[in-house]
C-alpha cells in the first residue's frame, strides 16, 4: 500500500488529531496572552526609564519609538487591567469556547465522514433506533450526512448528557471510547458553562444548575473562567480527545487499512 492509499484509509484519524493539535495551540495562545498582559501592565515605568537613558545618549529615533509606545500606555493599561480581572476570566472564556468548539467539530466530522464513506453506516444508525427512511442506502452525500448527524444528535441528546452523547454516537460505528466518569461529568459541566457564556452572558441559569452538581451553588450568578476552572475544562477536553484518538485508531476503519496492507 503506497502513502496515498494509506492516507485514504486513515481518514478516520483526521478529525480527532486536528482537534488535539488545535486544543494544544489554544493553550499556548492563552498562556502567552496572559503573560503578555502581565508584562504590559508593568512596562510603562521601564519604558520611561529607557527613554531617559536613550535621550541622554542622543538616540532620538529610539526615543520617538518609545514615545509612541508611551502614548498608547494609558489605553493599554486600562485594557490589561480589564483582562486581568477575575484571574484572566475574559481571556480564559474565549479560549475555553474555542477548545470546546474543537471537541464538538471533531465528533461531528468523524460521524459525518463515516456516513459519507461507509456503505453500511446507515444500517448501523438504524440499528441504534434512529429513523433513516428518508435517506437512500449506501454512503451518504456530505449534505445528507450533515442532516443525519443533526437528527442523531437531536434524538440522543434528549436522554444523554454531553459527554455521554459523544461516547454513544461514536459507539454506534464501533468507535468505543474508554472514558472515566469523572471526565464525562466535567464535560457536562463545561458544556453547560459554555452555553451560559454564549447565551446568558455567563449567568448560570436553571438548566445549567440542574445539569451539573458543581453549578448548583452558582445558580443565578455570573460565572468566571478562572485559571483553575479553565485548566479543569481544558484537561477534560484533552483527556476525551486522547481517548477518542485511541478509539478511532482501534476502530474497524483503520483496521481495514492494516488488513489491506498485509494482503
Which structural traits does this protein have?
single chain, 263 residues, mainly alpha, 12 helices, elongated, disordered N terminus, RiboL-PSP-HEPN domain-containing protein
Radius of gyration, rounded?
Answer: 24 Å
List SSEs in N-to-C order. HHHHHHHHHHHH
- The share of residues in extended strands comes to under 5%
Question: Quick check: average pLDDT?
Answer: 91
The structure class reads: mainly alpha
Q: Number of DSSP strands? A: 0
Head-to-tail CA distance between termini:
9 Å
Q: Report on the biggest sheet.
A: none
Low-confidence segments, given as residue ranges, are 1-6
The helix content, as a percent range, equals: over 70%
Principal-axes geometry comes out as elongated
Q: How many helices in DSSP terms?
A: 12
Task: Give an overview in words.
- There is one protein chain.
- It is built from twelve helices and no strands.
- The protein has 263 residues and is mostly helical.
- The longest helix is centred in the middle third of the chain and has 58 residues, at 60-117.
- The termini are close together.
- The model is unreliable at 1-6 (pLDDT under 50).
Task: Summarize this structure briefly.
This protein has about 260 residues and is mainly alpha-helical. The chain has helices at about 5-10, 15-40, 45-55, 60-115, 120-125, 140-155, 160-170, 180-200, 205-210, 215, 225-250, 250-260.
Secondary structure blueprint with pairings:
Blueprint: H1 3-9, H2 14-41, H3 43-56, H4 60-117, H5 121-127, H6 142-156, H7 162-171, H8 181-199, H9 206-211, H10 213-216, H11 227-249, H12 252-262
Helix pairs in contact: 2-4, 2-11, 3-4, 4-6, 4-8, 4-11, 8-11
Amino acid at each position: 500500500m503506497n502513502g496515498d492509499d494509506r492516507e485514504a484509509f486513515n481518514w478516520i484519524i483526521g478529525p480527532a488529531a486536528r482537534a488535539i493539535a488545535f486544543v494544544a495551540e489554544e493553550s499556548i495562545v492563552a498562556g502567552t496572552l496572559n503573560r503578555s498582559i502581565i508584562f504590559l501592565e508593568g512596562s510603562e515605568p521601564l519604558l520611561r526609564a529607557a527613554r531617559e537613558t536613550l535621550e541622554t545618549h542622543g538616540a532620538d529615533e529610539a526615543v520617538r519609538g518609545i514615545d509612541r509606545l508611551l502614548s498608547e500606555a494609558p489605553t493599554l493599561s486600562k485594557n490589561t487591567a480589564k483582562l486581568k480581572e477575575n484571574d484572566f476570566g475574559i481571556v480564559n472564556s474565549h479560549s475555553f469556547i474555542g477548545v470546546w468548539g474543537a471537541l464538538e467539530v471533531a465528533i461531528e466530522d468523524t460521524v459525518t465522514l463515516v456516513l459519507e464513506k461507509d456503505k453500511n453506516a446507515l444500517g448501523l444508525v438504524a440499528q441504534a433506533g434512529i429513523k433513516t427512511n428518508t435517506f437512500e442506502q449506501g454512503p451518504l452525500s456530505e449534505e445528507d450526512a450533515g442532516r443525519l448527524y443533526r437528527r442523531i444528535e437531536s434524538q440522543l441528546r434528549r436522554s444523554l448528557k454531553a459527554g455521554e452523547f459523544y461516547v454513544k454516537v461514536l459507539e454506534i460505528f464501533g468507535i468505543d471510547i474508554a472514558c472515566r466518569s469523572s471526565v464525562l461529568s466535567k464535560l457536562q459541566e463545561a458544556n453547560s458553562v459554555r452555553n451560559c457564556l454564549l447565551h446568558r452572558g455567563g449567568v448560570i441559569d436553571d438548566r445549567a444548575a440542574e445539569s451539573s452538581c458543581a453549578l448548583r451553588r452558582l445558580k443565578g450568578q455570573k460565572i468566571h473562567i478562572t485559571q483553575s476552572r479553565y485548566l479543569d475544562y481544558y484537561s477534560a477536553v484533552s483527556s476525551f480527545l486522547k481517548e477518542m484518538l485511541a478509539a478511532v485508531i482501534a476502530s474497524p476503519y483503520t483496521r481495514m487499512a492494516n488488513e489491506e496492507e498485509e494482503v
